[in-house]
Specification:
By secondary structure, this protein is α+β, with helices and mostly antiparallel strands. Helices cover 59% and strands 16% of the residues.
């Protein structure tokens, strides 16, 4: 079971969406994540840098035949942090519902 832990790095809406998108796959191309989140390259890049600095996301550049491609992947540490954050969010929601 994952320990509940609110994570300030993950909690920002775009970073939470990046992490949950990457959690479903081994890796995803930068442009696919950008399009899924409906954000600009610069917005995605800014949030990926924060996640990368926390060791939650890896960035891999692959030279293709026509142009380089950038791939994003959630690290094992990022997966644990996301799971703990989701567990804590669920706990918070349950507390709010119990107060009714």
């Amino acid at each position: 079971m994952t320990d509940a832990a609110f994570d300030e790095v993950i909690h920002a809406p775009n970073r939470l969406r990046i992490c949950t998108t990457l959690a479903a796959v081994d890796a995803m191309e930068f442009s696919v994540v950008r399009d899924a989140l409906k954000v600009s390259d610069s917005v995605l890049s800014k949030h990926v840098k924060v996640l990368q600095a926390a060791s939650y996301v890896t960035v891999t550049k692959v030279r293709g035949s026509s142009h380089p491609r950038t791939w994003l992947a959630l690290t094992p540490e990022g997966r644990r942090a996301l799971a703990g954050h989701i567990t804590e969010l669920r706990r918070i929601v349950e507390m709010a519902q119990a107060d009714r």
